[in-house]
Fold:
Amino acid sequence: MQEKHLYEYAVIRVLPLVEREEFLNVGVIVFCKHARFIKVLFTIHEEKLRLFSKELDVDQIKLNLQSFEKIALGTKNCGPIALMDMASRFRWLTAVRSSVVQTSRPHPGLSDDLEKTTLRLFEELVL
Structure:
């Protein structure tokens, strides 16, 4: 029997007009300290985002989401936050913020296959 890992995940959201608090789920972050696993998956539904706001800077949102991914992976040239330990990077990425790109609060789960779980969460919550 394969070991089950306690993991945490958060949904990445884009709020085209932050003051309206309307959002579109665009990705997930999955983290498991014990398995030393962290992964960000995202996609941009540009047509849907444009329904919220025609002035939205989609290119900037793409850059922000790519930064989320680089920070999660600990990419060396991505600033001091990317150099923190994995748990600290996850906590920073999921911290409450008032910006166009936000995350849900982290949620726990158990998984015996973190890659499959990440894909399942992405499909269920984003696609």
Notes: The mean pLDDT is 95. Strands lie at 5-14, 24-32, 37-42, 101-103, 107-111.
